[in-house]
Amino acid sequence: MCIILWQADFSQVFIVLKDFSLENLLFICLLQLITILLINLQWHKIALNMGEKTALKDLIHMNMVGTFVESITPSAKAGGEATKVYLLKTRMGFSTGKAAALVAVQKTISLIAFLLLNILSMGWFVVSVDVEGLQVKVIFGSFLFLTVVLLVLLLLVLYPSKLLSFIKGLTIKKKWKEKFYDVLETLEATVRDMLQQKKQLCGQFSLSLIIWLLFAFKAYLIAKGLNIQLSFIGIAVITYLTYMIGMLPLLPGGVGTFEGSMVFFLLPLGVASYEGMALALILRLVTFWLVFLLSALFLGYQQLMKIQNLYSH
Predict the structure, then answer these.
(1) Residues 39-79: pLDDT tens digits?
(2) What would the 3-class secondary structure string for the chain be?
(3) Which is the most buried residue in 15, 96, 166, 301, by most CB within 10 A?
(4) Using one digit for the tens of pLDDT, what is the confidence trace for 79-100?
(5) Which residues cross the membrane (predicted)?
């Protein structure tokens, strides 16, 4: 990926970027804000299905903080998810078990939808493109990693009691074992209740598909604005494969990995490296840097308010 980034003609990249209209960029940023709202509404609805009433503004705060942590740590989002559990417990009064259940269920639904789209994308890419051996290894290696992550999540969500026997064998203090038991029992009871709400789960799965389709739509609009002549399906396939590789825990936020992967997969489709780099940079600006900036500004504002309140007293 580093070689691909190094070989890109950045003088050509800047020429292409200058031709991208500000109107297009602002519209795509608006779509990203809609995406953020939909993600927060999904969290809100899943919490309601669990019997927990939470203010949407509190969930937005939680996701802003989680996004900031995810952006400064390697991908796979583990740090961000742990932060969300902590905030659900300390800020919104969730029990640890309920907080873990909400995070695990939302993550599982989102990952299942994402991996389904990636299975379709891998099939299209292998059939439609003259694939090299390295591309196959990268695609299937990334898919295997995310599949393992999903299986671990499913084990945690569907069979938390299986972990009890493992915990029994650990040489830790009794009070910690009891805390683990309480968390897992609450998690199991919460998930069991949710699994009975099949209609709501199907609705959340559909919403996850819509959210992921919006990412492909944003990439397609950027490609059209850059005069890259590819179909929506072609752009969607490259977008999902690129995001899949970007989720590998290599660099903070997948920076560099994402851009290199997009160029890497666009080359066999006849897209020049400088055009692919321009597409990757704008897409990352909207879906990563914009969100990171918003979360950083939000946290900065929160800290300023705390300092102001401290001095006012």
Answers:
(1) 999 999 999 998 888 999 999 999 998 888 887 776 555 66
(2) CHHHHHHCCHHHHHHHHHCCCHHHHHHHHHHHHHHHHHHHHHHHHHHHHCCCCCCHHHHHHHHHHHHHHHHHCECCCHHHHHHHHHHHHHCCCCCHHHHHHHHHHHHHHHHHHHHHHHHHHHHHHHHHCCCCHHHHHHHHHHHHHHHHHHHHHHHHHHCCCHHHHHHHCCCCCHHHHHHHHHHHHHHHHHHHHHHCCHHHHHHHHHHHHHHHHHHHHHHHHHHHHCCCCCCHHHHHHHHHHHHHHHCCCCCECCCCHHHHHHHHHHHHHCCCHHHHHHHHHHHHHHHHHHHHHHHHHHHHHHHHHHHHHHHHC
(3) 96
(4) 688 889 999 999 999 988 889 8
(5) 25-43, 99-126, 138-159, 201-220, 226-243, 277-301
Domain boundaries, given as residue ranges, for the chain: 2-303
